[in-house]
Sequence to fold (393 residues):
Amino acid sequence: MSVTDENTTVVIVGSGVAGLTLGAFLLRSGIDCVVLERRSREYVEQRQRAGVVDPRAARMFRERGLADRVLDGAPFEPVLNFRIDGETRPFRYVTDDHVDGRFCPQQVLVRNLIDVFVGDGGDLRFEAGDVTLEDVTGPRPRVRYRDSAGVPRTITCDFIAGCDGDRGVSRASIPEEELTRHAHEYGYAWLTVLADAPANHQSMMAVHDRGFAGQFARGPRASRFYLQCPLDSTVEEWTDDRIWEEIEARFGEPVAVKGRIAGKTLVPLRSVVHDPMSFGRLYLLGDAAHIVPPMSAKGMNLALHDADVFATAVVRQIEEQDASLLESYSATCLKHVWNYQAFAAWFTDLMHDAGDVSYHGEFRRRLARAEFERLYDSETAGRLFGEFLTGLN
Ligand SMILES: Cc1cc2nc3c(=O)[nH]c(=O)nc-3n(C[C@H](O)[C@H](O)[C@H](O)COP(=O)(O)OP(=O)(O)OC[C@H]3O[C@@H](n4cnc5c(N)ncnc54)[C@H](O)[C@@H]3O)c2cc1C
Fold:
């Protein structure tokens, strides 16, 4: 049996930060939408990933009247703590407006966004299986899925927002010849480690000849650590003892609390952009359209930016029958995406090239070290760096 009598304005596929933010913004503008999420609410609310909402994204929530309800956590400190060959070198960046940013764990942001969306009467359907998109180039696309009880359902809509990440169904529904994929592989991976270990600083990044290491606070009692490693590394090779030993070696100091390690994952560093970010009435948002290396802490912030641009475009179309912002959606977002990709690629190369020479050699190491010094020596270089970090450039 298929229930086919549902209609809405926007079907949002995926309830990550992009989908939920879009849903919250549309709802506040009185626009109907349905969010379909493959996973359970519990799973989505506990999935740990990013931790930085940059000042630009935080300002967006404030302007939409949602900052108090969705943003949690410590304010963004305008300091990056670098540890170079065992010596701490804080870098205080100067921008005109860094104050809004938050160290807000992604799962906290997601939980808050779900509370806002559902609390405001939003229609969010978890455990939606077998989502398929149909007739996306026609005037009224359809989305079919199975609900949590296994009942087949169909929703007809004006627009589909593909917010289902890099491996979702949305981008896969676009014929290959309609999309260009631009990709760059950095040649190394990060072992990402979630541990019950309080951080002394919001962030600490180590450059060392054994490779890059990072520690980022995830709330008052936990940290996420990152360790650069070869692409052919396996999680099994990284015992807990080896992880702590490597962290201590690269930071050049003992770790005060070596708590429980709750998770280990290997992430190959890469940049990917799909162009265009729309096909017919299907629009791609967030990781469904682009991936930035985690060094830059921009992935979640790009997803939030896409949601902002798309929500504004839909509202303009519905309220004023003006399609111009929908037509320029892809170009508007891609300009911002490439700007962030440029910063992310530069920062990723800088931090890794300055350390372990076995990847890109001594010449690149010296170049990276020189660029690093320029951040401290040149007010202009330092200011520009701060503006990119905060998303204000
Ligand atoms: C270890 C790690 C650390 C990171 N650190 C940072 C950081 O510090 N700062 C930062 O800005 N970014 C960071 N990122 C990147 C950031 O997490 C992503 O860019 C962000 O989650 C993208 O949000 P999204 O909403 O586009 O996609 P997602 O968060 O991936 O959400 C997609 C949603 O779609 C659902 N879905 C998938 N397929 C389907 C389907 N077929 N049907 C229905 N639903 C579906 C998924 O279950 C999921 O809920 C990090 C990523 C990782 C992995």
Observations:
- The chain has a mean pLDDT of 93.
